[in-house]
Design goal:
five-stranded parallel sheet, 5 strands, alpha/beta, 5 helices
Amino acid sequence: MNLNISGNGLAGLKVMVIDDSKTIRRTAETLLKKEGCDVLTAVDGFEALAKISDQKPAIIFVDIMMPRLDGYQTCALIKNTPQFRATPVIMLSSKDGLFDKARGRIVGAEQYLTKPFTRDELLGAIHRHVVTV
């Protein structure tokens, strides 16, 4: 994977944002595109799973509370697929509970961000789990 970490940040890095909130998807997409990321979005786990197998993102941000397939189920499905087991999954939630964080770890999430997240938190997660400078 070629990543240009210099002038335009994370050029070409494929990042997926799965959230049923249009506002959250737009916010994350805007922040990440400014850094040069190639951003994929999905409104729920079902839509995301189809896109993940086609697009193969380097990192996935997933909301916990979504209709049909929640973030925990989506993360578990991603992590149980051998091809994507190593893909970092970051849980997004408006709740900051210990139980939610523990449950995220159990299904294989690498990190847990509380909404509203900041640009630095998103980029920090990408640098921590994907970009090794």
